[in-house]
Amino acid sequence: MNRWIELVMTQMLPWPIGVLVSASALSLMIGLIGLWALWRVRRQLHAVTDVQDRVNTLTNSVALLTDTTESCFRAISMQLQFQQSSNVRSAARRPATPPAEPPVQTPGSRKAKQRRVVGAARRGEAVAAIAAREDLAETEVALRLHVGRDQQTAEPKRYGSLLS
């Protein structure tokens, strides 16, 4: 073992100790710079994956929006074609008459419709069925149910024969 140490020391003697320390410090500095660069690249790669996730989400959202818009335009086109074909058939069968005016909604009929909608919902009918029967949009039925529920909570219920 001593022989190896002597051999190494004889090889190191021509080199001054300052050169060896400087070379060691330089190699340590290069290693630290390499580690710092590796750390920065790793952080950048994490940022790239986050951006890729966001872009994928955006791409899926745009695809869904595009599909929905296309199906909406297709449905509108089909409805317009149906109306045009039914108008052509009906115009050929009967003479042209002025369009009928829509019925005027009186406050009493609106209240009656509101009562019918709320009553049907209490009986457990589906919103779509109520909307079809009352000739309303489903969102309007939902709004009427919401308004009806708010009116019920605003007015306390009175039971019994002692009403004042």
Structure characterization notes:
The structure is a single chain. The chain is mostly helical and 164 residues long. It has a domain of 48 residues. Helix content is 79%, strand content 0%. The protein has 5 helices and no strands. Helix 4 crosses helix 5. The radius of gyration is 41 Å and the shape is elongated. The termini are far apart.
The best one-word shape is: elongated
Largest sheet: none
Q: Average pLDDT, to the nearest integer?
A: 79
Number of DSSP-assigned strands = 0
Series of secondary-structure elements, N-terminal to C-terminal: HHHHH
Main attributes?
mainly alpha, about 160 residues
What's the gist of this structure?
The chain has 164 residues and is an all-alpha fold.
Task: Give the secondary structure arrangement, pairings included.
Elements: H1 2-12, H2 17-93, H3 107-122, H4 127-134, H5 138-154
Helix pairs in contact: 3-4, 3-5, 4-5
